[in-house]
Specification:
7 helices, 55% helix
Length: 140
């Protein structure tokens, strides 16, 4: 009885070039996270238990990050796992709305850093509710 091969190439597993794009998007989110919380690549690599060089390759989409590593980051920085995947819609070639594009690089990281600095889950919920109310979003 022969042992089945456990490792597959992307093409054998049914993945095509968009999987590389997914890696790039997730890597970019990790870079944005580091900038928002003002931590070094060294610090994040330590959280993940990997060399800095490997983290750099992940951030540029040249290496795949595991779900376990993403979970470690989410847990360490108080994020929902969805944070890492929220920009994947961009792969559908949907343009960024022109009215919000100028704010993405400026205000969003500040808001995100403020959110992460809150210790209380109640304070985090209140901040989200405040932003939603200011934006006229009704979640009730």
């Amino acid at each position: 009885m022969t042992r089945e091969r456990e490792n597959f190439t992307e093409s054998e597993a049914g993945f095509t070039q968009p999987s590389k794009a997914v890696n790039v998007v997730i890597g970019r989110r990790i870079q944005e996270l580091r900038a928002a919380v003002d931590v070094s690549r060294r610090d994040v690599a330590a959280v993940l238990g990997i060399p800095i060089k490997q983290l750099r390759a992940i951030e540029y989409g040249n290496k795949i990050i595991t779900a376990e590593m993403l979970y470690r980051l989410a847990t360490k920085y108080g994020l929902d796992m969805q944070y890492f995947f929220q920009d994947l819609d961009a792969l559908n070639e949907t343009p960024v709305r022109a009215d919000i594009a100028p704010y993405i690089s400026r205000e969003l990281p500040r808001l995100f850093a403020a959110y992460l600095s809150l210790d209380s889950a109640d304070a985090k919920r209140d901040l989200v509710a405040l932003v939603e109310a200011a934006a006229g979003i009704n979640t009730a």
